[in-house]
Amino acid sequence: MASAVERTDDLVREYLIYRGFTSTLKLLDSEIKTDKEKGFRVDKIIDQLQQLIQSYDLTGLKEYWAYLDRRLFSRLEDVYRPTVNKLRTSLYRFYVIHTVQMKNPEKTQEFFQKQALELQTQPEWRDWFALPFIPAPEQNPTFSPYFSRQWADTFLVSLHNFLSVLFQCMHIQTPFDNEVQRVTSVQEESEQLRQQVRPSLFWSLVSLVRNACYSEKKNDSDPDTQTEGLPDQTDSTNQTRVCEVGGASVEQPFIKLSQEEYIEHHSSIMHCRVDCSGRRVASLDVDGVVKVWAFNPIMQTKATIMSKSPLLSLEWAAKPDRLLLLGSGVGTVKLYDTDAKKNLYEMTIDNIHLRILSLACSPSGTSFVCSAAAPAAQSGVVTEGEARVSPPVSGQLLLWDTKTVKQQLQFALDPGPVAINCTAFNHNGNLLVTGAADGMIRLFDMQRYESALSWKAHDGEVYSVEFSYDENTVFSIGEDGKFVQWNIHRSGVKESEYLLSQDAVGPFVLSGYSGYKQVQVPRGRLFAFDSEGKHVLTCSSNGGNIYRLNKADVGLESVLCLGGHKAPVVTVDWCSAMDCGICLTASMDGKIKLSTLLAQKP
């Protein structure tokens, strides 16, 4: 219905412009801006409720919900009234939890004072009147579930699904009702009308009326089955979204529940990684500033690391996950404790190959590999025209023990020596895959500490490499703009190949004033998979793009554009450690977007 209303509004605007009714057009636009039903767009209604909560407008929140109740919910059968009441209860709890999280006790007290008469007789609110007097309610067994991101996300998607199904299933009085009765007479007078009104406007309106009314009559789904699993329950049922791809209807696999922005960096991001537990993020910019921050329940910087020497790489340790490895441009790696906020060790890796380009910690937590490369002519950010054109530089790949803080061995690189740009372990640490500046992918057996396979993968450098979900293949992105899947059991046989735009591969370009352009060579992860390995997140000019992985002859199928950025995204990460997946997209203006996704399970 939302799309039909929006199209009708556009047609009415077109007609008013055609007739020259500018005053009426201004009045229409003004009325639309204040439309409480938001053109039956569920996302706009949810945004309005969240804005009222964030501004502590309790009166406005109650009035808006009461309007929705009168206009929409009152039309439902009595059997759905308990669902509406549960949603209202959860909405009020969402508000009061927000006041506590924002440390605004006055608004918390105000809520219970104003709502006392209404809520004191309701059993589900009996324990909540003690909330303002509990020192740490987020640690109280009664209230702690409501302080989690999972509860908030589940409530929002439940409300979203309820409204979506409601708009699809119930018949709301709209301009279409009168138009349907007049379709026959309109058809009889069509020849006369075509002489007065542009044909495109008339026939678009008639077709729109027919299609909108037909789709409303055809839809017979049951809203009650779509609203089970509210925050008070244990399960969550989500409405399946459908999108058009290539003219065919396909299931939309993810819902973007929210998108937040981290703005503590002041220069382009190089690396951005979530830790193994999915609780913290470490991000590194080109100025060498590292930020460690949490996002649940709110975004909060936990540590800021400033280094006298330039930092080029970072990696979370697997065990314990509070430790962070930081690679420098002077041949050293620091082991940093993010809880104690101090350096534990500083290891001198190499006195000749000073740039630590890549770090990868073994899943066992006992060792890590690091790539050390000789100094290059330019840094990660250069001006246009200075992009990398020199031959591959020399480099080493080393294995270090995290307990003894000593080097265990140096891997043989054949052909070599060459700079290794990217490294990744498989799930148990028995295999290590690397991508190098010479375009080669090398696979190492970590039980024997020797090279198992190597093959020419790209024309130019390999920028990013990862194992597939089943670990029978590896994926890589190279300087040639190709995204390739390789079979590791058949000497690097190519299983599929996809072409990506420069926005996804780099070098990344940010334009400025007076013709200035900044170019950044890829350093961080350029792609990341979801928990089942069926979808991949890549960079783009204004956000992250999520694709469904298909066979090579089908190609990548775009399923969701995260958006939200004003500068090119240069690195991404996708964490599925929590029930709701977290996508990170970091850009050249220093902004990091955290998008929370809910997977649509078939």
Molecular structure report:
The protein has 12 helices and 33 strands. Helix content is 27%, strand content 32%. Strands 3-33-32-31 form a 4-stranded antiparallel beta sheet. A 4-stranded antiparallel beta sheet has the order 4-5-6-7, with no helix packed on it. The protein has a 4-stranded antiparallel beta sheet with strand order 8-9-10-11, with no helix packed on it. The protein starts with a helix and ends with a strand. The protein has 602 residues and is of the alpha+beta class. The radius of gyration is 28 Å and the shape is globular. 37% of the residues are buried. β6 (290-294) and β7 form a beta hairpin.
Class of secondary structure makeup: alpha+beta
Beta-strand portion reads: 25-35%
User: Helical amount among residues, as a percent range?
Assistant: 25-40%
The radius of gyration is: 28 Å
With helices defined by DSSP (H or I, 4 residues minimum), what is the helix count?
Answer: 12
Question: Distance between termini?
Answer: 24 Å
Number of strands: 33
Q: What value does the average pLDDT take? A: 81
Largest sheet properties:
4 strands, antiparallel
* Biggest sheet strand line-up: 3-33-32-31
General shape: globular
Uncertain stretches of 5 or more adjacent residues: 171-188, 193-249, 382-389
